[in-house]
UniProtKB/TrEMBL annotation:
<dbReference type="InterPro" id="IPR014710">
    <property type="entry name" value="RmlC-like_jellyroll"/>
</dbReference>
<dbReference type="Pfam" id="PF06560">
    <property type="entry name" value="GPI"/>
</dbReference>
<dbReference type="InterPro" id="IPR010551">
    <property type="entry name" value="G6P_isomerase_prok"/>
</dbReference>
<keyword id="KW-0324">Glycolysis</keyword>
<dbReference type="GO" id="GO:0005737">
    <property type="term" value="C:cytoplasm"/>
</dbReference>
<protein>
    <recommendedName>
        <fullName>glucose-6-phosphate isomerase</fullName>
        <ecNumber>5.3.1.9</ecNumber>
    </recommendedName>
</protein>
<comment type="pathway">
    <text>Carbohydrate degradation; glycolysis; D-glyceraldehyde 3-phosphate and glycerone phosphate from D-glucose: step 2/4.</text>
</comment>
<dbReference type="GO" id="GO:0006094">
    <property type="term" value="P:gluconeogenesis"/>
</dbReference>
<dbReference type="InterPro" id="IPR011051">
    <property type="entry name" value="RmlC_Cupin_sf"/>
</dbReference>
<dbReference type="GO" id="GO:0004347">
    <property type="term" value="F:glucose-6-phosphate isomerase activity"/>
</dbReference>
<dbReference type="GO" id="GO:0006096">
    <property type="term" value="P:glycolytic process"/>
</dbReference>
<comment type="similarity">
    <text>Belongs to the archaeal-type GPI family.</text>
</comment>
<keyword id="KW-0312">Gluconeogenesis</keyword>
<feature type="domain" description="Glucose-6-phosphate isomerase prokaryote">
    <location>
        <begin position="10"/>
        <end position="169"/>
    </location>
</feature>
C-alpha cells in the first residue's frame, strides 16, 4: 500500500518524568544508557482526511523502573472522540484506560486479544511480560495525540506495578484528577 510511512522511536532518555521514582529512573539511565530503545512504532497512513485510517505496529520492550513496568507516554486523542483498535500480536501487556470523568480500566492483552478503545479515553500500553509486547493498531488519520493532559494530571489514575512474578494495579498517589488538569 502506498502512502507516508513513519518510524517513531522513544528511548530511555526521552522519558524523563514518566515514571514516579525519579531516582530509580536516573539509575536506569546511567546503567542502561539514555539511548536504550524503549518502544518503536511503525505506522502507515495514505491520507490525512477524517475518514482515513492510520495502521501500524507498536513494539514496547520489556523492562521496569523500580516497580513500574515499561510503558508508553500515553495520550488522549487531540480530536478526543476518535477511537482506536489495538490487537495483540505477541507478548503480554496491559492497556491502561482512563476517562476524564473518573472511569478507569486495565485490559490485559495476550496474543489474539484485542481492545476497542472508544473515543474520549486516555490510553497507554504497559509491558508486563518478559518479551516485546507487540500490538497492531488502527485509528483515524485525523486523531492526533494530546500528551499534556496526562502530564498536567500527574500521570494516569492507576499504576501497573510488579507483584511477585506477576503484575497488579494500584492507585497513583500523584494523580491530581483530569478535571483539574483540564482547567
Ligand atoms: O504516542 P505514545 O503514547 O508515545 O505511544 C506510542 C504509540 O502508541 C500507539 O501505538 C499509537 O497508535 C501510536 O499512534 C502512538 O504514537
Ligand atoms: Fe492513540
Amino acid at each position: 500500500m502506498s502512502g507516508a510511512s513513519r518510524i517513531y522511536e522513544k528511548r530511555l532518555g526521552d522519558l524523563d518524568g514518566l515514571y514516579r521514582d525519579s531516582e530509580a529512573f536516573a539509575a536506569e539511565v546511567s546503567q542502561r544508557g539514555a539511548d536504550e530503545l524503549v518502544y518503536v512504532v511503525h505506522e502507515q497512513k495514505y491520507d490525512s482526511s477524517p475518514g482515513a485510517l492510520i495502521i501500524g505496529t507498536s513494539t514496547l520492550l520489556p523492562g521496569a523502573v523500580s516497580t513500574e513496568f515499561a510503558m508508553t507516554r500515553g495520550h488522549l486523542h487531540a480530536v478526543a472522540d476518535r477511537a482506536e483498535l489495538y490487537h495483540c500480536l505477541s507478548g503480554h501487556g496491559v492497556m491502561l484506560l482512563d476517562t476524564v470523568d473518573g472511569d478507569s480500566l486495565a485490559v490485559e492483552l495476550t496474543p489474539g486479544k484485542a481492545v476497542n478503545v472508544p473515543g474520549h479515553w486516555v490510553h497507554r500500553s504497559v509491558n508486563v511480560g518478559e518479551e516485546p509486547f507487540v500490538t497492531l493498531f488502527c485509528y483515524s488519520a485525523d486523531a492526533g495525540q494530546d500528551y499534556s493532559l496526562i502530564e498536567r494530571a500527574g500521570g494516569m489514575r492507576t499504576l501497573i506495578v510488579k507483584d511477585g512474578e506477576g503484575w497488579s494495579q494500584i492507585p497513583n498517589p500523584d494523580h491530581r484528577g483530569y478535571e483539574t488538569a483540564a482547567n
